[in-house]
Amino acid sequence: MSLPLIQQYLPGYPAHVQAQVAQLHAQGQLGQYFRQRYPQPNTIQSDKALYDFCNGLRQRYLKNAPLLDKVYFDSQLTIERQTLGLNTAISRVQGGKLKAKKEIRISSFFKTTPAEFLTMIVVHELAHLKERDHDKAFYQLCLHMEPDYMQYEFDCRLYLLSLILNKTQVGLLT
Ligand SMILES: [Zn+2]
Questions:
Q1: DSSP assignments along 73-128, one per residue
Q2: What is the pLDDT of residues 88-97, one digit of tens each?
Q3: What is the Å distance from ligand 1's center to 112 Cα?
Q4: CATH superfamily of the domain spanning 42-169
Q5: For 106-124, how does the pLDDT look when each residue is reduced to its tens digit (9 = 90+)?
Q6: Where does the YgjP-like metallopeptidase domain lie (predicted)?
Q7: Residue ranges of the domains in the chain?
Q8: Less Cβ crowding at N or C end of the chain, within 10 Å?
Q9: What is the value of pTM for the model shown?
Q10: How many angstroms does the Cα of residue 27 sit away from the middle of ligand 1?
């Protein structure tokens, strides 16, 4: 049964939404849903392009957020580890002063997803530069940067879930 997995990947979403997803999956229609809705593949493939994309959004929407020292794709962040984006402030001594280096790491997984999902994860990690918790202020900031943020987050969870369900079918996951 795939419903426990659906509950795990879509926590907090209403039962009727979860049931609808289970039905789409059972009918083999999840793949089609994504191809129709998100036909545009992500073109950002290098760390440089990722940095420029992140920094562009930061400059446009988060004027007084700290500067980003480093932004890169990280192949260590995987679905299996349940971490697809990270933001860190690493304190380093520089010129006798303690300086926090801001880093954003995005899972290499997003190189192969629709463009909108990369935007979603980047917006998410950028919002954490100002808001630590996943509270109302955090989501308001996400929506400020990307008005379709909630839809993208939901669909990205659904996309992950469909990949896991497909793997389960061919026996890669038990
Ligand atoms: Zn977060």
A1: EETT--TTTT--EEEEEEEEEETTEEEEEEEEEEEGGGGGSBHHHHHHHHHHHHHT
A2: 777 777 777 7
A3: 21
A4: Metalloproteases ("zincins"), catalytic domain (3.30.2010.10)
A5: 999 999 999 999 999 999 9
A6: 96-152
A7: 42-169
A8: C
A9: 0.85
A10: 32
